[in-house]
Amino acid sequence: MHHALLHHVIKGTMRFFDTTPVGRILNRFSNDMNTIDQNLNTTIVQFFTMLLALLSILAIQSSTAPMLLFLLVPVFICYVSYQRFYGKSCRELQRLDNISKSPVYAHFTQTLNGLATVRTFEMIEQSQRTQASKINENTKAFLLLNLINRWLGVRLEFLGAVVTSAVAFFVSHDHAVLSSAMAGLLLSYSQNMTSLLDWTIRCNIDMENMMNSVERIDEYCHVDTEPVTLFEHRHERYTLPQSRTLQLRPHWPEHGKIDFVNICVKYNPTGPPVLDGITFTVKSGEKVGICGRTGAGKSSLLLALFRMVSFDNAEEGGNIYIDEVSTTALTLTELRSRIAIIPQDPVLFAASVRFNLDPTGLATDTELWTAIQKSRLESLIKCLAGGLDAEILEGGDNFSVGERQLICLARAILRNSRILCLDEATASVDHATDEFIQTSIRKEFANATVLTIAHRVNTIVDYDKILVLKQGQIAEFGPPSELRRKPNGEFAGMLQNLG
């Protein structure tokens, strides 16, 4: 189940991750998987062990003293009624306990990720109060779960006392029929039967409650996934048969021309479109800057290019063509491997420098060092113990934000793609690093098609064209020299705001 859960979550769509809190996903992998691995199997074994022992005792008692069966019938009816009442309440309380743990995990994860911000704005006490309130909500369900367990325990112990007293009464009145040894056996078994009934009911109910975890994991094993194949070994994907397009054109894209044709994208099926009828063409080798206010659809445009979001109007002709090839005619692996990107938040894995630069393992050391030199990382990498094989901490914590971004730049240079995308890649770095990255891109990707989402508009004023988005539509598109002279134009207004 863990393999299926991991397989589907890794392949989950962007919509799944946008609508699912991280804490909820962590809860599935931690609490629910622990319940299944550690508790469920043991509980199932205990249930059948107790049940078989109980049936054996009943068989012995019914054969020795058949009259006891008439006593046990009403007792069993009470047991069953208690089990049904307790089972319904316990199942819902267990569900509430599992659900209320997700906000605890989510807030804790968010606090760790934003710890610097929390300390900067002196929000430590407020963060602690928020975490305490979420823990209290979880504790309420946990407390009620324990209270209802004691409620059941008191009643089961009372019924057990009734059974033991009835057996003792029966033995004392039929001492002429039963031998002392048989009487002692019945009394001993009656006490054992009480304990076995108690544990059989508890194991049965616990087993039903633990099946909630199975149900919750099974839910994530049926989430919407991307049509991409995962492999155990890093080189295995290169042995896949290529699509017919790449068989005929193995070096696609040769030029880097991009045609956006009537692109419409919605994150929520019932919500407004984030991209509404986007149509424009980027010629081969053009440098296009994309700007607009927050929520205008800039990042969504790149997500559509990488097919991380689907087109809502694909049946009506909405599509993206790269060198006259529809992106939907390629597999996701083929499409995404042919386009380089430098994201706003640099992503580094807890692995070696070599792996972070070249996850495929196909580049030579010479090629790796060449890309490192072009990114001005040579002195930094050489100072690390192990050089290219030096380990990077999780999230790249042993590198600054600027250094992590330069590693992403080296990764893009190493790929040598005809198309490069930058999603506000220099928004979080200092001015010197920003200037160096911009200079490197102009030099290393001089003949490539570049799409840049700009945080600082002055970084794209020398681009070939500017695309201004507004509420998911194209407000302006053309050379910056024309747009800056346009009266009351969107781009001209942005430049004026810069002073």
Automatic annotation (TrEMBL):
Q: Which residues form a coiled coil?
A: none
Q: What subcellular compartments does it reside in?
A: Vacuole membrane
One Pfam entry for this protein is ABC_membrane
**Where is each ABC transmembrane type-1 domain found?**
1-209
Superkingdom of the organism of origin: Eukaryota
N-terminal signal peptide = none
For this UniProt record, give its keywords in alphabetical order, as a comma-separated list. Answer: ATP-binding, Membrane, Nucleotide-binding, Repeat, Transmembrane, Transmembrane helix, Transport
SUPFAM superfamilies with a match to the protein in the record: ABC transporter transmembrane region (SSF90123), P-loop containing nucleoside triphosphate hydrolases (SSF52540)
Entry keyword annotation includes Membrane:
yes
Q: Which GO terms describe its molecular function?
A: ABC-type transporter activity; ATP binding; ATP hydrolysis activity
Cross-referenced Gene3D superfamilies: ABC transporter type 1, transmembrane domain, P-loop containing nucleotide triphosphate hydrolases
Membrane-traversing stretches: 43-60, 67-86
Name the CDD domains on file: ABCC_MRP_domain2
Membrane topology, as annotated: Multi-pass membrane protein
Assigned GO CC terms: vacuolar membrane
Q: Which residues form the ABC transporter domain?
A: 258-496
Q: What is its main location?
A: membrane
Question: Which named protein is this?
Answer: ABC transmembrane type-1 domain-containing protein
Organism for this UniProt entry: Peronospora effusa
